[in-house]
Amino acid sequence: MSWIAIDRLTADGSTLECDLRPSRELRRFVTNTPFRVEYDRSIEAVPDGILAIPVLANVCPVAWANGADVYVDEVDRTFAHALEDVKASLLELHDFLEGGTLYARRTIDPLENAPSAPVADGAGDSTGATDGSTTTTPAGPGATADGGSDSALLFTGGVDSTYAYVSHRTENPTLVSIRGWTITPDHADDEKWAHLCERVSSFAADHDLETAFIETNALSALDHAMLLAHYKRYVDGAWYSSVGHGLGLLGLCAPMAYTRGIEDLYVAATHWEGIDLEWGSRPDIDDHVRWSGTQCHHDGYDRTRQERIDAIADYVDSEAPTLELQTCNVRMDGNCGECEKCYRTAVGLRLAGLNPTAHGYPFADADYDRIRRSLEAGAWDLGEDERYMWADIRNRVRETEPDSPRERAFFEWLLAADLEGLVADADPPLSHRVLRAGARNTPTSVYNLAYPMMQGVQSRLRRIRPGQ
């Protein structure tokens, strides 16, 4: 029987920490590093059942991929039920997931003074309390809140999260930023995190909003490199993008939401209706995530990316003429204006009637030629994500009159381009795929040395590929 146990869960000031103890079969996916989350205010008054949510949200998908059980002393009853719903969605989405059972000694409901009933009897593929006992607490979400907003939004300042803010701005949502996924906890990313915090804080100050900053080492407590190597064959993206990040990121917010009395927590949609990709953040995942006092929401799924940019353009015209977006894949202190995502966003802004240069993207008509050359040369590592997003832009191009000869030429090329072929031409080289495949039978210590080396080589190659 495979399993992962959550041991020594503690809250010391603003720091959450616990140990992960795996069975032998799962050791390659778990390091010896304690799972840790840093918040920006004390979490010592948060019940253990809520404190367990961040680690369970990140560990359970790994367990489900291996048919493994998870053991924890205490869990919030509402979240235990939510995990069952999320698991059902993920198992339907990914054939390689096997499922597993969460076993808790105690279940709690911080909002009730009466003892909570056991979630299940522990039999089969369901959540169970191993001794049937329960705990209660007189405090609950809102009891330690400081009078701020009762809604929150995961926020980076990109297109999707800015659209989510525009949609919910009357709620004055707390802006939540998380370090530990695209910005790692490594010292090498300190400057990136500082830039993000400064930008989000500035946006919050301009709009009279509160902020919440969270830092985690989830990708080092769980062996992210080995998860990527082992499961890349099953997914279009990486482990967290395809499987774990909707539940994982939202779960990290639970102690923060408890201390602030957050009732509604929004995460911005990346995709939209009609896109059927194996993506780890979707309505049928995120909308299931909940815990006592808090319901999570996958926001903006009813609009395409271009339609979200249109809504932002309306907001710019009516309320925020100097708004700047941040979407760059290269920099966090502004936009480089040269990566695929910068170019794609700049074109979207122009199609929405905005001048990209006024909103954070240096852009001129000559850039249309660079975009075409880069796409044709396979200079960017593109996936199905990007194919859908360029197709979305192409749909808008059909309705748009070009402003210049270069724009017209680019529009005509895009309307005739084989987007599926462009994505296929951008596939990682065979040597990279072979390394990932070989790592499935490679000792973790060896793979952890080899994979960053290969990443570095590929990064240098991408920088010198023609058309970049």
TrEMBL record:
The name this protein goes by in its record: Uncharacterized protein
UniProt region (Disordered), positions on chain: 113-148
UniProt superkingdom: Archaea
Low complexity: bias regions: 120-148
